[in-house]
Amino acid sequence: MHKKPLSKQIYDARWCYLFVLPCSILTGMFVIYPIGMSWYFSLLDWSGFTKEAKFIGLQNYYEAVNDEFFWDAFIRSFIFMFGTVPVKIVLGFIIAVFLNNQVLKLAPFFRTVIFMPVVTAIAIIGIVMTFVFSPFNGPANKFLMSTNLTSAPIDFLGNPDTVLPTVMGVYVWKWLGITMMYWLAALQTVPQDVYDAAKIDGAEGYRLWIHIILPIVLPFAIVIILVEAVGALNVFPLIETMTAGGPFFSSEVMEIYIFRTAFVTDSGTMPRLGYACAAGVFWGVAVLFITVLQGLWMRRTRRI
Amino acid sequence: MSRYLNFIAEKNQVKYLIITIAFIIFSFFWIYPLLWVLSASFKTDFEIWGGLGLIPDRLVWENFERAWFGANMGRYFFNTLIITVVSVIIVVVTTGMFGYVIGRYSFPGKKILIGILISTIFIPQGYTIIPVFDLLNNLNISKNLIGLTLATAGHTPVIYILLFAGYFSRVPVELEEAAKMDGAGFVRTFISIMLPLTKPVVATVSILQVLHAWNDFLLPVVITLGNPDIRTLSVGVYAFKGEYFVDWSGMAAASVITILPIIILFLFMQKYFVEGVQGAVKG
Fold first, then answer.
1. Would you give the DSSP letter of residue B229?
2. Which residues in chain B are contacts of A48 at CB distance < 8 A?
3. Of A26, A76, A167, A193, which is the most buried if we count CB atoms within 10 A?
4. Residues B71 and B43 placed together within one structural domain of the fold
5. Which residues of B touch A276 (CB under 8 A)?
6. How high is the ipTM of this complex?
7. Structure confidence by residue, pLDDT tens digits, A288-302
8. Contact between residue A233 and residue A77 where contact means Cβ atoms under 8 Å apart
9. How many angstroms away from the CA of A13 is the closest CA of chain B?
10. Tens of pLDDT, residues A120-147
């Protein structure tokens, strides 16, 4: 059978093209086009609210890499990632192992409870947590003081030393349900006879886990780590509503930095969309770089 | 009696009992913040900061009245509802069509299309938000719900398409051929044969999109910067915090208005939430 000419192929597939059109238009408008435009905007000296925009080449980038707030935020984003992802992976795994047990009658109930924060609007969680961690009679401090764990209230969100760990803790709490679900999906791919066979061979406890279960769930682990790592770099709503990057910029991650330079004007400075785009592009490229790196690592591990 | 003894006697059962109790305590602490805000929404300001107890002395329904009318949460509720419902419809129809074609047919350019899609998976929202804002301004739809709804639907996770494509690709070919024999065209085959088969995926994608649209924050906060009338609930509560920052109980009520519908939806349709979330790593 010889191949049809391209024009005929395209004509035969006309319905296919029609079907992919609506989604392609939307994605083009709200994902592809913005990506392209942010590259262009980043070359402009432009406030975003007037038509006046001046082409200034790479000057925004030059300014960004020389701004220490930029690098602080940049590094803080990665601190956030390295501080939360391992905790989520390990904790989620432990919980999933327990809840994967058929004998545990209340497992579905616990699963629901742990998943509950995931479906709760993130902005609301951020706002509620400012109450919960308030130094003025907030429940967290009240609990710590009534159990004599501390003698004076801790200003969790007002102290530059405690603010980031607190936000990271809330982040883990908010999204742990997702990690648990990922792990449960992974554990459910381990066939029952593998457990049974291992039991017969006398593999118990940690040996069962290290030699039998872990190799099976490892490919999942890599995907989970990848998804979690990218997720941990997108924390704008939580931090914006909990601390808005404060106090004294001590919880300002990259997305907050971009938002602040683009829109927020309370410091009396002009909003600078062009500059914010440059910071965003720099950031997007960094994230992409990490994703690709992880993807390559993933491929290598899978081949083994 | 004998059953009870059995229960204690077996070593494993004791272990499970301990684990269960540990999980019950853990669960209580886990959802305490959510229970706390629910209870605060029925308390007076004075009572909120009084103690750790969760049961209010008396149900103060006026908190909800203040939030719903005074802080405009009623309006924001319907804004959010419209955005959510319309964006779910748009997303299900467009990604369903896309997934169908990708999952069942091959045509010139398919690989390129998939490649472009995959490459957008990890684009942070913060990266596209400024041009989206500018685009809506230029199209003159940034001041009403149309722009916000379209942008919410447009930021579609690729996972929806993959869920549809995966499902459609497993439908037996015979079904389609039978439809063709009956003289059904491309569109009719899709609507009357294929679509009814994918109800589980439609449900899963809908749920995920509801979750995304209802809870989204970055996009609505940017789009509604100059237009308080089209705020969503999340943005409304955030603005509430800035404007009436001493009205704790009102804010708790506003928070409950925002989170309760989704929590109820989740409790009833948990299966689809779980499938949607797990689809991301299974694929």
1. G
2. 130, 133-134
3. A167
4. no
5. 130
6. 0.86
7. 887 788 778 777 766
8. yes
9. 6
10. 999 999 999 998 898 887 888 888 888 8
